TrEMBL record:
GO CC entries: AP-1 adaptor complex
Record domain GAE: where: 699-814
Stated name of the protein: AP-1 complex subunit gamma
Keyword Oxidoreductase: no
Organism from which the protein derives: Cyprinus carpio
Similarity comment: Belongs to the adaptor complexes large subunit family.
Any one GO biological process: intracellular protein transport
Protein keywords: Cytoplasmic vesicle, Golgi apparatus, Membrane, Protein transport, Transport
InterPro entries: Adaptor_Complx_Large_Subunit (IPR050840), AP1_complex_gsu (IPR017107), ARM-like (IPR011989), ARM-type_fold (IPR016024), Clathrin/coatomer_adapt-like_N (IPR002553), Clathrin_a/b/g-adaptin_app_Ig (IPR008152), Clathrin_app_Ig-like_sf (IPR013041), GAE_dom (IPR008153)
SMART domains hit by this protein: Alpha_adaptinC2
Gene3D superfamilies: 2.60.40.1230, Leucine-rich Repeat Variant (1.25.10.10)
Chief place where the protein resides: membrane
Length: 819
């Protein structure tokens, strides 16, 4: 058989291939020749064939059929065969193939070989692909070589020991005696691999970490010698002595000094020397400085040293290399929480990085800029970030807008500034903001009572300029619907009021309904705004026409709203002013920040409810979410009633008939009550009447006084139904013994989840003075489990021009009312 071609000729031949198919043909032809040679047990050219096979493996072609040939080469006595055999084993074998176990004995023999280069080959192979079984079998030989005086073998044995520890951590203690003298070695290669071994042992075992902390002075001495040593051509890299060893020592010092005062104190001086003496004109010096900064930040270093580290990162920000600037921004972002003031000194440089062309640097600079925002620099930083928002790529706009919203909410110097900032974001990047931005801004505007006229005027102007930003249009529609009368009357004091007629405002809202830019949600906002203006404007007939048109809209949501609004105009016109009155001040929910009521794992402390006095509210009669805020805990089912003043009690049932389960509160949906058993009448939404249908007066159920305070007295009387004994009907009687009427009276109640409660409309919202009359209201309670009845009540009214709120818990119900 002719001699196979040499590896160099094969490489030259493959490189002449003009197409992938031609190269594949050459490879297949050569693989066939190699297989034939393997079958004939050709020992002469086995080394050459395996070398060619490894080259083809590097090109991505299959070479697994050469695995056993590698083992045969390893067993050979020739060094050239062993070298190719071990190289092939490292490339073609791993611990997933059982065949690798066949070479364990060969490696053990070679670890005890008389030639250091053969020992080195076996150490490299074991350290590269040794399995846990091989490591257990051969750890003793590695430990012996770690103690030898031969530097060439010690450095390879140290790296092999690292692999053994990773595979079999319990063998770590075997290498502990051998590590005692490793750092005394003068050879830099041994020092380097010894530091790697010590680092691995410290990271894997807290006991080893404590044991090796006594080596800190020795490591400091080695590092100091490297810094102070003169020029050494053997170790010099760009004018710095062995930067690789310096970096490894700094990493080990970082691990040893973390959380330990004594070790940190011992390395403070050397870290300061490295930080001040290292040349920064080359990348080598920057790499050492970066590791020094990380070490200073991780250990318990002095404050001056930390400032020095942050100043080094500040210098990195001025470097022309983008990678160094990115590393500096990332490191500053990690340290900004612990060393905020030191990082603040580089704020202008960080803000300049927002203008960088590299997107990674811009993103890191944006994140760091938001982390630097505080109450002192909020105006300046927001100016820069808003400018960045104007010019940044679309990928950044969503995150930037969210960051601005959060920073403005936390540090806003005034409500006007807060509103202006959020409106600027919506104008610039409205299509990119999060879904909760619209309700959050609406809440902000609602709670800023003195800014209503200014806000609605600004939003109206924004609508005239641009209707493409849907979140902005939605907020503007909501505000015009709520405060349209302020817009038309020109009551704005913060800036020059504009002259707007009712027809002009309606023209703008009608334009949103027909605009192709408007989403279905935006149209719903606009239609609701037009409906609200029916109680604020005099153009009621025009509004009726607009609403009636959309009663046949193909958009189901819009059609439903229009049908319900049409019903309000026709059948329920007497309820329209109460339903469309202005929204009250909205209290923040617990998800947006801490509340006044203490909570533990989502539960409200019931004891607080007995003493908690909520602040007075300007519009108590329509504070729909108050009861949810009041009750807080998870064990109650609140029923929130919308009061209908000056109308008979039957209006409440009509309202529920009209709107079904549509939420009128705009607040969070209450926790659903347990389903009513089929044997009981589902009385929650079934054509309610204000007059009780229970005519069987339960004998022996005495009335009770539920509340008596500040001249207001609430009495409960009880009725039970014979067919449905689980349903109790409670009639409240509110009387007023003071000399002035109590107006805007609202009674609210809530019961635990095991009950169901239905609160009907009151007979009036005025409690006459001097007990000259009373307000009555019916409560129906379903108690299927016949548990003791408990109820929390909330009373809101206006007395002598001052709003009053109070709450109480009623637990002393007569047993006959619930048994």
């Amino acid at each position: 058989m002719p001699a196979p071609i040499r590896l160099r000729e094969l490489i030259r031949t493959i490189r002449t291939a003009r197409t992938q198919a031609e190269e594949r043909e050459m490879i297949q032809k050569e693989c066939a020749a190699i297989r034939s040679s393997f079958r004939e047990e050709d020992n002469t050219y086995r080394c050459r064939n395996v070398a060619k096979l490894l080259y083809m493996h590097m090109l991505g072609y299959p070479a697994h059929f050469g695995q056993l040939e590698c083992l045969k080469l390893i067993a050979s006595q020739k060094f050239t065969d062993k070298r190719i055999g071990y190289l092939g084993a490292m490339l073609l074998l791993d611990e997933r193939q059982d065949v690798h176990l066949l070479m364990t004995n060969c490696i053990k023999n070679d670890l005890n070989h008389s030639t250091q280069y053969v020992q080195g080959l076996s150490l490299c192979t074991l350290g590269c692909m040794g399995s846990s079984e091989m490591c257990r079998d051969l750890a003793g030989e590695v430990e012996k070589l770690l103690k030898t005086s031969n530097s060439y073998l010690r450095k390879k044995a140290a790296l092999c020991a690292v692999h053994v520890i990773r595979k079999v951590p319990e063998l770590m203690e075997m290498f502990l005696p051998a590590t005692k003298n490793l750092l005394s070695e003068k050879n830099h290669g041994v020092l380097h691999t010894s530091v790697v071994l010590l680092t691995e042992m410290c990271e894997r075992s807290p006991d080893m970490l404590s044991h090796f902390r006594k080596l800190v002075p020795q490591l400091v001495r080695i590092l100091k010698n490297l810094i102070m040593s003169g020029y050494s051509p053997e170790h010099d890299v760009s004018g710095i002595s062995d930067p690789f060893l310096q970096v490894r020592i700094l990493r080990l010092l970082r691990i040893l000094g973390k959380g330990d005062d004594d070790s940190s104190e011992a390395m403070n001086d050397i870290l300061a020397q490295v930080a001040t003496n290292t040349e920064t004109s080359k990348n080598v010096g920057n790499a050492i400085l970066y590791e020094t900064v990380l070490t200073i930040m991780d250990i318990k270093s002095e404050s001056g040293l930390r400032v020095l580290a942050i100043n080094i990162l500040g210098r990195f920000l001025l470097n022309n290399d983008k990678n160094i600037r990115y590393v500096a921004l990332t490191s500053l972002l990690k340290t900004v929480q612990t060393d905020h003031n030191a990082v603040q000194r580089h704020r202008s440089t960080i803000v300049d990085c927002l203008k960088d062309l590299d997107v990674s640097i811009k993103r890191r600079a944006m994140e760091l800029s938001f982390a630097l925002v505080n109450g002192n620099n909020i105006r300046g930083m927001m100016k820069e970030l808003l400018y960045f928002l104007d010019s940044c790529d679309p990928d950044f706009k969503a995150d930037c807008a969210s960051g601005i919203f959060l920073a403005a909410e936390k540090y806003a110097p005034s409500k006007r500034w807060h509103i202006d900032t959020v409106m600027r974001v919506l104008t610039t990047a409205g299509s990119y903001v999060r879904d909760d931005s619209v309700p959050n801004l609406i809440q902000l505007i609602t709670n800023s009572v003195e800014m209503h006229a200014y806000t609605v005027q600004r939003l109206y102007k924004a609508l005239l300029d641009d209707i493409s930003q849907q979140p902005l249009v939605q907020v503007a529609s909501w505000c015009i619907g709520e405060y349209g009368d302020l817009l038309v009357s020109g009551q704005c004091e913060e800036e020059e009021p504009i002259q707007v007629s009712e027809d002009e405002v309606l023209d703008v809202l009608e334009g949103l309904l027909v605009s192709n830019l408007s989403t279905p949600v935006t149209r719903a906002y606009s239609l609701t705004a037009i409906m609200k203006l029916s109680t604020r404007f005099s153009s009621v007939n025009r509004i009726k026409k607009v609403v009636s048109i959309y009663g046949s809209s193909i958009d189901v949501e819009l059609q439903q709203r229009a049908v319900e609004y049409n019903a309000l105009f026709k059948k329920y016109d007497h309820m329209r002013p109460a339903l469309l009155e202005r929204m009250p001040i909205m209290e923040k929910t617990a998800t947006n920040g801490p509340t006044d009521i203490a909570q533990t794992n989502g539960e409200t402390d019931s004891t607080i409810l007995d003493t908690k006095h909520l602040p007075s509210i300007t519009h108590p009669a329509s504070q729909a979410n108050d009861l949810l805020d009041l009750l807080g805990g998870n064990d109650v089912v609140p029923v929130i009633q919308t009061t209908v003043p000056t109308k008979p009690a039957s209006a409440g049932g009509e309202l529920l008939d009209l709107l079904g389960d549509l939420s009128l509160t705009g607040g969070p949906t209450p926790t659903p009550a347990p389903s009513v058993p089929m044997s009981q009448p589902p009385f929650l939404l079934d054509g309610l009447s204000s007059q009780p249908i229970f005519n069987d007066i339960a004998a022996g159920i005495p009335p009770m006084t539920a509340y008596n305070k500040n001249g207001l007295k609430i009495e409960f009387t009880f009725e039970r139904s014979n067919p449905s004994p689980n349903i109790a009907v409670i009639t409240i009687h509110a009387t007023n013994s003071t000399e002035a009427d109590m107006t805007e009276f609202v009674f609210q109640a809530a019961v635990p989840k095991t009950f169901q409660l239905q609160l009907l409309s009151p007979s009036s919202n005025v409690v006459p003075a001097l007990n000259q009359g009373s307000v009555t209201q019916v409560i129906r309670v379903l108690n299927p489990q016949k548990q003791q009845l408990r109820m929390r009540i909330k009373l809101t009214y206006t007395h002598k021009g001052s709003p009053v709120q109070d709450l109480a818990e009623v637990n002393n119900f007569p047993p006959q009312s619930w048994q």
